[in-house]
């Protein structure tokens, strides 16, 4: 019996669904509120639901797609991305969103062997502007964009 299961997409979909379920579980103790009066758990809930829908879609494509075996795990790339995310979270409060975002982009950019330093710099500059535009100017979220020592300048 021949099956049309794309192992890579199927596994990716399952991982996304597990992450979404874990995130929803961790977020379950936060008050959600309503769309008009959002609580601290509202946006994480929306993001995790979107992640679950994406995971279900990827899994569905994997179950009906072209057969494809799992490739070897790219440990270096995976490690760089995890380190980048951890450092972003660790640096955000003490060093501000700008430094955290640049750190995230530079380290995760190194995970792509075809990425150039110019491409990383352009992406970092674009994301800095986008983060400032959305979070600081648009949503007026109370997060320091610059390191607290420089915020008063």
Automatic annotation (TrEMBL):
The keyword Transmembrane helix applies. Pfam families: TctB. Residues 11-142 form the DUF1468 domain. Keywords: Membrane, Transmembrane, Transmembrane helix. The keyword Hydrolase does not apply. The chain crosses the membrane at residues 7-26, 46-66, 78-107, 119-139. This is Tripartite tricarboxylate transporter TctB family protein. It comes from Paracoccus pantotrophus (Thiosphaera pantotropha). The lineage of its organism: Bacteria, Pseudomonadati, Pseudomonadota, Alphaproteobacteria, Rhodobacterales.
């Amino acid at each position: 019996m021949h099956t049309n299961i794309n192992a890579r997409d199927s596994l990716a979909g399952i991982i996304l669904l597990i992450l979404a379920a874990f995130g929803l579980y961790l977020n379950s103790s936060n008050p959600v509120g309503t769309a008009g009066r959002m609580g601290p758990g509202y946006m994480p809930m929306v993001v995790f639901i979107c992640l679950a829908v994406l995971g279900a879609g990827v899994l569905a494509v994997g179950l009906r797609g072209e057969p494809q075996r799992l490739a070897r795990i790219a440990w270096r790339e995976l490690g760089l991305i995890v380190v980048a995310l951890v450092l972003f979270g660790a640096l955000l409060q003490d060093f501000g969103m700008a430094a955290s975002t640049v750190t995230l982009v530079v380290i995760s950019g190194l995970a792509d062997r075809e990425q150039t330093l110019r491409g990383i710099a352009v992406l970092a500059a674009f994301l800095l502007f986008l983060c400032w535009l959305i979070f600081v100017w648009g949503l007026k979220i109370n997060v320091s964009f610059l390191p607290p020592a420089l915020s008063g300048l």
